[in-house]
């Protein structure tokens, strides 16, 4: 006790603190600034705040030096060392648990009625996956490895959980950049899509009023998720986690006998998992992986992927406009990118600008939910080809 | 050009084709399912209506038409709600209420 020195102890505390560690590697400080920018986007600008706020906090926590939050479990000198908190949380992404549970909630929230009433909407959902494959080629041209390029391409599906699941399987080091790009652009859809919609369609096409959809019976809605799960998963088994959970959630919603499960899936469960998913994505954004030229490339490729997907949906919408004798408004094609229901709302807004009596929302919901299935199929294909 | 090869284009094309095939298959299956479901349901509905002991169709199975406001059929909607909906549609579209024609308003 006689050796105790107050000043010495204070010095020791400071030297072993995170502040001192910043001097050794200032890149962590830059990542903390990145986290603050994301806080501003999420809280100040309200860009996908449910995801961006936990992602930003995950970045903050994982870039504080010396916390050991991301430490893997280890055995040192025969003593088992507990893993870090964020490492444990991240296992849900690593093993594709969180994106699948998010899909369960999305399924419980989604009404597939408009899609069942007009099955041709599915074709728009397929065409709007163009961005996935175009961005894949562009990423390869920029020098990314094929598996990483595939994960980057899936940003074009405009579906956060699908992009995260694919990145966790094919490009783990790029997961934060891919997730942040996907969610940021999903929030920016009302800015990204309208110029393309006006560029690729004529005033006459935008003015088209579509016929009211037929009434879909309860039984059709109950059979739909079961049939989709059987056909899609049997054909592409790699889509099982996403399509399986999406359709299970939808069955909860439609069957009418498990209201409590449906309520839990679309509220409590999805909220809990969203916290873990956001933290997991954020915690992988450590300086050495994130502060690279590749991150900037991914951000640019993500934007191009969104634009190509929107264009794909619109162009196919124009084809359907011609084939239907002018009965289909091509604006609903852009809703084929997933981003439910934001993309459908954009179709509604643009349709009403062209013709105030136009109500495209329900018509656009068909391609919109078809886009969710389409992007899951595209992601399943990429995982099948590049997953090893 | 980076890692771009001829096979990359083949992969991209195959992927797009697979997505289309999958969704076209679904597009074909959905009407079949709908037809089967409706075909199965039709006799059941007829059976419910047909017996002479129960001449009236079950009211719970059908949406109840509460009333007719002017020429607007109100199905499971009260007049106050219908008036609000008509006012909102008029406001959102910028079309005066006098120029709008509502045929029916139905609770979903």
Write the layout of secondary structure elements.
The complex is a heterodimer of chains A (388) and B (108).
Chain A: H1 6-15, H2 18-24, H3 27-44, H4 49-62, E1 74-76, E2 79-81, H5 85-94, H6 97-109, H7 113-117, H8 121-127, H9 130-141, H10 146-153, H11 160-170, H12 175-187, H13 189-200, H14 203-206, H15 218-235, H16 240-255, H17 259-283, H18 287-290, H19 293-323, H20 342-354, H21 361-386
Helix pairs in contact in A: 3-4, 4-17, 5-17, 6-11, 6-16, 6-17, 8-19, 8-21, 9-10, 9-19, 10-11, 10-21, 11-12, 11-21, 12-19, 13-19, 13-20, 15-16, 16-17, 20-21
Chain B: H1 6-49, E1 65-69, E2 72-75, H2 79-93, E3 104-106
Strand order of the largest sheet of chain B: 1-2-3
Strand content of chain B: 5-15%
Largest protein interface, residues of each chain? A-B, 47 and 36 residues
Instruction: Quickly count the domains of chain A.
Output: 1
- Report the biggest beta sheet of chain B as strand number plus sense, adding barrel if it closes: 3 strands, mixed
β-strand number of chain A? 2
Query: What strand line-up does the widest sheet of chain A have?
Result: 1-2
Q: Report low-confidence residues of chain A grouped into runs of 5 or more.
A: none
Number of helices of chain A: 21
């Amino acid at each position: 006790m006689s050796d105790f020195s107050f000043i010495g102890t204070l010095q020791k505390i400071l030297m072993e603190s995170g502040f001192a560690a910043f001097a050794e590697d200032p890149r962590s400080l830059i990542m903390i600034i990145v986290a603050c920018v994301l806080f501003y986007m999420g809280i100040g600008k309200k860009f996908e705040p449910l995801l961006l706020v936990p992602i930003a906090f995950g970045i903050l926590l994982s870039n504080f030096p010396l916390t050991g939050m991301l430490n893997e479990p280890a055995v040192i000198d025969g003593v088992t060392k507990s893993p870090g908190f964020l490492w444990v949380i991240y296992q849900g992404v690593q093993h594709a648990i969180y994106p699948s549970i998010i899909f369960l909630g999305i399924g419980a929230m989604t009404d597939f009625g408009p899609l069942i009433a007009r099955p041709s909407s599915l074709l728009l959902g397929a065409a709007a996956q163009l961005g996935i494959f175009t961005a894949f080629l562009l990423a390869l041209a920029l020098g990314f490895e094929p598996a990483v390029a595939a994960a980057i391409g899936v940003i074009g599906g405009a579906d956060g959980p699908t992009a995260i699941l694919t990145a966790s399987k094919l490009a783990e080091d790029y997961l934060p950049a891919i997730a942040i790009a996907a969610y940021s652009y999903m929030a920016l859809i009302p800015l990204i899509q309208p110029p393309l919609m006006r560029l690729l369609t004529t005033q006459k096409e935008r003015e088209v009023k579509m016929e009211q959809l037929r009434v879909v019976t309860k039984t059709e809605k109950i059979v739909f998720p079961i049939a989709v799960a059987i056909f899609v998963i049997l054909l592409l088994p790699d889509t099982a986690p996403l399509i399986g959970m999406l359709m299970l959630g939808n069955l909860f919603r439609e069957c009418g006998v498990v209201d409590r499960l449906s309520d839990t899936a679309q509220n409590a469960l999805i909220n809990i998992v969203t916290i873990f998913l956001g933290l997991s994505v954020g915690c992988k954004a450590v300086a050495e992986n994130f502060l690279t030229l590749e991150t900037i490339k991914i951000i640019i490729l993500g934007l191009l992927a969104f634009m190509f997907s929107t264009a794909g949906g619109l162009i196919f919408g124009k084809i359907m406009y011609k084939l239907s004798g002018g009965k289909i408004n091509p604006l609903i094609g852009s809703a084929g990118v997933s981003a439910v229901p934001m993309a459908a709302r954009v179709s509604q807004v643009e349709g009403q600008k062209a013709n105030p009596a136009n109500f495209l929302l329900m018509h656009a919901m068909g391609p919109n939910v078809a886009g969710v299935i389409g992007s899951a199929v595209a992601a399943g294909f990429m995982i099948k080809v590049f997953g090893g | 050009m980076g890692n771009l090869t001829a096979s990359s284009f083949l992969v991209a094309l195959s992927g797009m084709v697979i997505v289309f095939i999958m969704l076209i298959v679904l597009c074909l299956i959905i009407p079949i399912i709908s037809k089967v479901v409706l075909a199965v349901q039709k006799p059941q509905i007829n059976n419910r209506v047909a017996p002479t002991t129960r001449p009236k169709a079950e009211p719970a199975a059908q949406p109840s038409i509460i009333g007719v406001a002017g020429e607007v059929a109100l199905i499971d909607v009260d007049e106050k709600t219908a008036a609000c909906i008509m006012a909102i549609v008029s406001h959102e579209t910028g079309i005066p209420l006098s120029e709008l024609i509502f045929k029916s308003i139905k609770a979903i």
